[in-house]
Amino acid sequence: xxxxxxxxxxxxxxxxxxxxxxxxxxxxxxxxxxxxxxxxxxxxxxxxxxxxxxxxxxxxxxxxxxxxxxxxxxxxxxxxxxxxxxxxxxxxxxxxxxxxxxxxxxxxxxxxxxxxxxxxxxxxxxxxxxxxxxxxxxxxxxxxxxxxxxxxxxxxxxxxxxxxxxxxxxxxxxxxxxxxxxxxxxxxxxxxxxxxxxxxxxxxxxxxxxxxxxxxxxxxxxxxxxxxxxxxxxxxxxxxxxxxxxxxxxxxxxxxxxxx
Amino acid sequence: xxxxxxxxxxxxxxxxxxxxxxxxxxxxxxxxxxxxxxxxxxxxxxxxxxxxxxxxxxxxxxxxxxxxxxxxxxxxxxxxxxxxxxxxxxxxxxxxxxxxxxxxxxxxxxxxxxxxxxxxxxxxxxxxxxxxxxxxxxxxxxxxxxxxxxxxxxxxxxxxxxxxxxxxxxxxxxxxxxxxxxxxxxxxxxxxxxxxxxxxxxxxxxxxxxxxxxxxxxxxxxxx
Lengths: 260, 224
Fold this sequence. Notes:
heterodimer, A: alpha/beta, D-Maltodextrin-Binding Protein, domain 2, 2 domains, five-stranded mixed beta sheet, 10 helices, 20% strand, elongated, B: mainly alpha, MetI-like fold, 11 helices, 0% strand, globular, AvModA-like_subst-bd (chain A)
């Protein structure tokens, strides 16, 4: 019994001595980001990490709706990059954000396929019986899914293709359905179609922006991230030319500008 | 209040679980019989394969099934050869995936029951000139009844509770692949907590009742 006490005391001592040490050296932030940012942000974060050794930036990707729900439920995210400014505004309004929503990019939606040349496809082709399943992100909580639905409705195709739709949990999963060939085409994000993971697998065609509401993307710093210097440093880094070039490379238009 | 959307998902889930349980009993009983009685070196490897879903994350199963059942996968090519539509995003696809997913929950209780029974009832049957097949149906199966009931309950309940695999290969299509667990997920992600509660609470109650039935019964069951 006595030995157990001694052992526990020893463990406590070790934890107590090491804990402040760790807090002092490492500066860490966790970012929650919409899935369409995956490839662009990966590149930006790895550049940032190279320039800020010792600091740590973790990114968790998911649908914007899911991530904002998690933030409301106390998820430890410091910055939230939403694919839709509406989610960022809602968080701000309900007191979960420390900053006003700041637009960072405008997203575009494309028709993409791994099995046929989507560059030669038009939206109307989706109604063709030769096209089987069409993958979109879940419109209930993924902004790109909502836009995909708007596009199909605006093009007068919704009723014709409704039975062919399958819903990914977020835009990445929708793309993955098409990438494995399980779905013939996906309505996905331009930023994903331009990533090297899928760029050489069949082409894409850009969907006119007139068919859906503008995909204005915005970030907020959450209450938890409010006092973190690293959060601000990272957001400043996002504004640099180097980061902006990456965003443009992945098809994001700067906010306030007409998308290409 | 539950909506028609909810009832559609519940109906789909029950339909899936019923079909899967029925098929699994058909496949599981002979398989368990073989596993319980064989001296073959294959017993170890095959037993391990059957038990895999107990330890594998559903995402692993979902991932490989998506690849295998897709048009470029072996299963997908085979289906295409016979002119059948690919399995992802279909109810049939969910059935196939669930067969893998729930297999150990059905095979293991039956195998345990067969093993607990020992050789003597079959030897007795043999002395009365019962053929092995006859003995299987008239002696082994009735004796293993508690194990079969446990297997059916576990297989059914486990299929009802399936989430990861259907999320990966299902595509959340209403009336076809959007089962209760996926609908709950969608409602929570969309912050429709009230609607999520109806289904989630119901699921909780259902699971509790199933386990209560199982453990309440087990006190008396012999080969459970």
